[in-house]
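Q: what does this look like with FE2/S2 (inorganic) cluster bound?
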Amino acid sequence: MRTEFAASLERAAAGEELTREDIINLLAAAQGAEEVALYRLADSVRARVAGDEVHLRGVIEFSNYCRRHCCYCGLRADNAKLQRYRLMPEDIVAAARRGAELGYGTIVLQSGEDPWYTGPMLAEIIREIKKLGVAVTLCVGERTRDEYAMWREAGADRYLLKHETANADLYARLHPGMSWQERLRCLQWLRELGYQVGSGNIIGLPGQTLADLADDLILLRQLDVEMAGLGPFIPHPATPLGGEPAGSLDLTYRVVATARLVIPYAHLPATTAVGTLSPTGRQLALQRGANVIMPNLTPTRYRADYQIYPNKICVNEGPEDCRHCLEGMVRALGRRLGRGPGHTLKPLPVQ
Ligand code: 5AD
Ligand code: FES
């Protein structure tokens, strides 16, 4: 092991606050002994703060309409090849009921940025789903503060809004018409409104460096997030980045493991993108710091059209298939399914 890596890992093991340099050292873990040591520490911190429970969050991808132009995303408004769909409110609630019956403690409502669903419409959907006794996570992008407030009032517990990259220049290049400052302002509003906040970033974007990824983790620490989604870049042929190489799976594992050390109390999903790049991707992520999986609850006939990136897994499966597949996966790892809503892991403040 190189001395700088070993020193940073030791600081992590001692629970010291990691510097940007430390984080870069850990992200640069070499194949072999360094990676093994990083993963072992991440897994032990995961066991200590999150236990052996793996929480399942059922995701309903209720609309693939999107008004944005993110250069990596297959849902971008400019992608004319995509067959667009919207679930009606009663169908969203029915899918959520299915999720509650399958035992999911959290329902995630995810879509492109689709203003067709007005603030009051989504509030009504949230109220109906909350009657099922589940936690509700929203993932519908940038909206007004009033809408965020209305949804919180309606019972939404959590909000996922990935910052995508902490490098403001890269952010500007990848998100025409959007601004990094506005993104952060939205995250600030969500925090003020009492949501459990999730953010996260893409790994292996063209032009992204290890220092950028360290800045991602530092930003997540500053935001004090309750959850962080960290997934590899997967090129989509119908986007401007279609010809770029995919993000590295190994780098993704190193980011997830390092995230467990930088933001130990955050829920970290083994992402669908990791599962798309490798059939054992999610299992390995769960053994390297992750503690959450997000099974698909979208009605099967729409799944193929929620093509954020190509070859997404579970496109031909139904909600029950994913439920059973994941129970088997979790058991095979010697872990167990989470019970209850799986709220924040952060320790309660001392009174
Ligand atoms: N590769 C990997 N992740 C992507 N996302 C969108 N497009 C891609 C892609 N091509 C991620 C973004 C977004 C989430 C819904 O999916 O992080 O926030
Ligand atoms: Fe969908 Fe395995 S998670 S089939």
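The chain is about 40% helix and 10% strand. Residues 168 and 181 are 9 Å apart (CA to CA).
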